[in-house]
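Quality-control log, excerpt.
Job 1 of 2 completed; input and output follow.
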Amino acid sequence: FRAFREGKSSDIKTYSKEQALALTLNLGLSRSKYKELRNMSNVQGIKQYLSYYNIRLAKIACYPPRETVTISDTHASIKLQALLDLTVCRILETYNIDTNFEKRNLKLISKWGFDGASCQNLY
């Protein structure tokens, strides 16, 4: 508190792209609300929030490659392997695991569906 009161805002860290994206999603912030929050913070001299462009980049990084997505008038589908690969890459990035350090044999153990909600469309 003392550092903030004395104008020493260097202790305040800027959110990462992923943290800023999580903030907007968790708080349900629209683009305009996030920009207003960022502008108000900047006016106070607190450069904590990234530009909305960086949030868009973080959001795009969560999407599977375009060539694995098929969209038509009647359906949309994504190759399962592409989703699994993306999930593994995001997990490894989150925990800062260097996959190039050595040859690694990693195993993804996951569960598919059957969470009790898969038949809700029958009601």
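Job 2 of 2 completed; input and output follow.
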Amino acid sequence: MRVKAEFFADLREKVGCPVKEVDFPGRTVLDLVAEIDALSGGGFMRHIVEGGRLKDLVKVLVNGRDIRGISGLYTELKEGDVVSFFPPVAGG
């Protein structure tokens, strides 16, 4: 399956680009995170997943919908989906 992954703020630096077309054999957001982790040399997953769950302040959208309102990391993806990763953001 091929999806488009978008990375924002410091996650762009971790992955090395703002947008990546990813071909992977998995079906879920967690499978995609694991594939991106492998493609980027490791370290991406620890910014997104903690204790088998999506980190509290991280936001992941599939086609503009927050995965927390779907099935979390187990949200199923389909060909051509756009998955957006946002790190924790703080303001002051």
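Post-run check on job 2. DSSP finds three helices and seven strands in the chain.
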